[in-house]
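User: For a reading group we're discussing how well predicted structures match intuition. Take 3-deoxy-manno-octulosonate cytidylyltransferase (CMP-KDO synthetase). Before you show the prediction, I'll give you the sequence so everyone sees exactly what went in.
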Amino acid sequence: MIQRVYEQSSKATQLDQVIVATDDERIFNHVTDFGGKAIMTANTHQSGTDRCFEALTKTDGIYEYVINIQGDEPFISPEPIDNLAEALDGQVELATLVKVIDSDEILFNHNVPKAVLNKRNEVMYFSRQTIPYLRNPESGQWLGAHTFYKHIGIYAYRADVLAEITKLPVSALEKAEALEQLRWLENGYAIKAVITSDDSHGVDTPEDLVRVSRKFLL
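Assistant: Thanks. Here is the predicted 3D structure of 3-deoxy-manno-octulosonate cytidylyltransferase (CMP-KDO synthetase), as structure tokens, for the group to look at:
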């Protein structure tokens, strides 16, 4: 799976380098065996953001931005990675991907984070709850009455901002929703949202592997 993520990410034209950051020697050895680049990091990190920052400090280059691509996305397409990278103009502090929700199953699934955007396509809030709440239409009519966004967990960090946010303590909103990105919003950082038509197909469990294998490989 990690080889597939690496190969798909390497097809993105806007990335200078693809590096696997891991605290597992088995993953490190696997990546180097197939010719990829990997960096060993500490096993004490609480998030992928912290791991990305350590990896950045161990690279031999100077990078303005870091994009955090999850290692459990074997069917990721290079196009949304490029779309995210193209939005990084030096002024953007943080950026992520969102997708328009097109099913009630996703809209009312509390395991799927939602994002609310402002007129500049910056994220105002993330929630596992369905937001915004529509007061008048019945719930079965919500999709036709408003545009809702699913959050896709690929992040871009400006290097100096990445160094800052790794020093922030866990915030109250982050604790409430169990969403790390709320820590950044609560501390006043702006998160640019890039709208994509590509969906996320993470593999977190054996059942997920069966599901996505049937969808993409059969």
